[in-house]
Design brief:
It contains 19 helices and seven strands. The protein is mainly alpha-helical. A three-stranded antiparallel beta sheet has the order 1-2-3, with no helix packed on it. Strands 4-5 form a two-stranded antiparallel ribbon. The structure holds heme C (3 copies).
Length: 449
């Protein structure tokens, strides 16, 4: 029989082992500071590629506050656990990453650890950035280190206990952070592989389009199956796609490059930002993304293809509809008076909208995106002949918009009715100002009489 003393020793040894294991999981060393490198020390071609890569990675969307200095951080990124503020990633030596070596930057991208050795929250999508190659990290580093330094101290996160404890992130990583989730597939073309590398890595498409579990990690088993993000629904972009007309590589390229496709409509909300970035990068990168994503959608079934072809053949030549069998005359007349002149008259862009039977918004699992768009409309991009639709927030009540949306759902999709559309509209109205795609600085605060 073991003596009490022996048992005591065993417990002590076990406790020490657990502590060492915990420290091994949690503790990461600091990486020494460097003197901020001179901007001229970076190769200009590398800096230029870094700019394209930063656009593909949407770094600016999360790290630049509207109206503030580029990459100075402080952008509130909402999570189910509270708000995390992005960091200053300008080369400011005090408050930015001016004293970070390339190795420190690479470690942050690949493992979510800052220069001091602290764990970063996965709101910074390093679960994807871990796939970025050393060469591309070098280019990103060169680009960021040649930006204008901005003095902007970090803002304190608003996270509740225990989520405000960064050590917890170490456990999260142990459970969910996988390295090498992108592997070259020798069976596929170079373009497909480049697309896979970008989508699974820098472009982090899954961070919005893949559903997450209760701990905020993407569900690896259902990639691209659709998820909610910032008061929008990021549609399924796999074989579950609700799009009435199946996507193909050509359509994806157009949509991702220009933010609009005649058979699918326009990119709004958080997706508008993504396509704005993709409009600035080499077309070959966007082609590669489209090629890979087309494969993720997969070839449509014969039935789905036939239905899509049928919709396209009818588009624009739809005759005015009689009020539907469900007796929603209010919705029908709102549509006929307010929407049909632009959506059912074959009117050309920028004012002409697509035949609504082609819109993914009306075939989506909930009415959220459709409600957002009816409330806010579509703001034109500055200086371009881009689509324009007025918002109806001030001229229609929640009940009217709900009646309209119920009508559109019944009329223009083959799916069952949405539930609690009035609730969805109310919610959308409450968050309306923050979900506008691109509010110019002077109109972010709407004046209410
Ligand atoms: C979805 C939003 C989002 C995107 C996109 C994003 N970041 Fe971040 N990033 C954050 C947040 C939030 C933090 C702060 C995390 C924390 O405090 O734990 C952060 C932190 C960082 C840090 C650590 C800085 C420090 O001082 O600790 C670096 C470096 C960084 N991001 C670089 C980038 C680069 C480069 C890109 C583009 C390739 C990028 N980020 C894209 C949200 C984002
Ligand atoms: C920041 C979040 C976010 C990121 C990152 C993102 N998306 Fe989206 N995406 C959305 C949202 C939200 C929508 C719905 C937009 C709308 O209603 O217009 C959308 C819509 C789409 C659509 C239209 C689908 C349809 O049937 O209409 C495609 C295709 C798409 N995204 C592809 C991509 C690809 C490819 C990437 C990566 C390069 C990507 N998205 C990255 C949020 C995102
Ligand atoms: C002045 C013309 C105009 C009016 C009026 C108008 N729209 Fe639009 N609408 C557009 C344009 C332009 C677009 C963007 C191009 C596109 O996607 O069709 C658009 C886009 C949409 C979309 C998104 C289609 C997609 O999935 O990309 C929906 C849904 C929509 N409108 C619904 C409505 C409803 C409902 C009404 C009536 C309350 C309405 N629109 C009134 C011009 C208009």
């Amino acid at each position: 029989m073991a003596s009490p003393r022996m048992i005591g020793n065993i417990i002590a040894i076990a406790a020490i082992a657990v502590a060492i294991a915990a420290i091994a999981v949690v503790w990461r060393p600091a990486i020494a500071t460097i003197d901020p490198p001179a901007p001229q020390s970076f190769d200009s071609a590398l800096v230029k590629r870094g700019r394209d890569l930063a656009a593909i990675g949407n770094c600016s969307s999360c790290h630049t506050l509207r109206g503030e200095k580029d990459f100075a951080g402080g952008v509130a990124v909402p999570t189910p656990f509270g708000t995390v503020y992005s960091s200053n990633i300008t080369p400011d030596p005090e408050t930015g990453i001016g004293r970070w070596s390339e190795a420190a930057f690479r470690r942050a991208m690949q493992s979510g650890i800052d220069r001091d050795g602290r764990h970063l929250y996965p709101t910074f999508p390093y679960d994807h950035f871990t796939n970025v190659s050393d060469q591309d990290n070098r280019a990103l580093y060169a680009y960021l280190m040649t930006r204008q330094p901005a003095h902007a101290p970090a803002r304190e996160n608003q996270l509740s206990f225990p989520f405000n404890q960064r050590v917890l992130v170490a456990g999260w990583k142990l459970l969910f952070l996988r390295h090498g989730t992108y592997q070259v597939d020798p069976e596929q073309s170079a373009e497909w592989n480049h697309g896979a590398y970008l989508v699974e890595g820098l472009a982090h498409c899954g961070s919005c389009h893949t559903p997450r579990n209760a701990l905020g990690a993407e569900k690896a088993r259902v990639p691209f199956a659709g998820a909610d993000v910032d008061n929008w629904h990021a549609y399924a972009i796999n074989n579950q796609s609700p799009a009435p007309v199946p996507w193909n590589a050509e359509a994806l390229f157009e949509y991702l490059r220009r933010g609009w496709h005649s058979e699918h409509g326009v990119a709004r909300g958080p997706m508008a930002e993504v396509v704005r970035n993709l409009s600035e990068v080499p077309a070959s990168d966007v082609r590669a993304i489209a090629t890979y994503m087309a494969d993720m959608f997969g070839a449509p079934t014969a039935e789905r293809k036939r239905r899509g072809d049928e919709l396209l053949a009818q588009a624009g030549s739809r005759s005015p509809q009689a009020p539907p069998a469900n007796g929603n005359a209010a919705g029908a007349s709102l549509y006929a008076a307010t929407c049909a002149p632009c959506h059912a008259a074959g009117r050309a862009p920028p004012y002409g909208g697509i035949d609504l039977a082609l819109s993914t918004a009306l075939s989506a699992p909930d009415a959220r995106n459709a409600a957002n768009i009816v409330l806010s409309g579509i703001r034109p991009e500055q200086g371009e002949a881009s689509p324009i639709m007025p918002g109806f927030a001030d001229s229609m009540s929640d009940d009217q918009i709900a009646a309209l949306l119920n009508y559109l759902r019944a009329q223009f999709s083959h799916r069952p009715p949405w539930t609690d559309v009035t609730g969805t509209v109310r919610d959308a109205r409450r968050t309306q100002t923050v979900s506008l795609p691109n509010p110019p600085a002077d109109t972010t605060q709407r004046d209410k009489p």
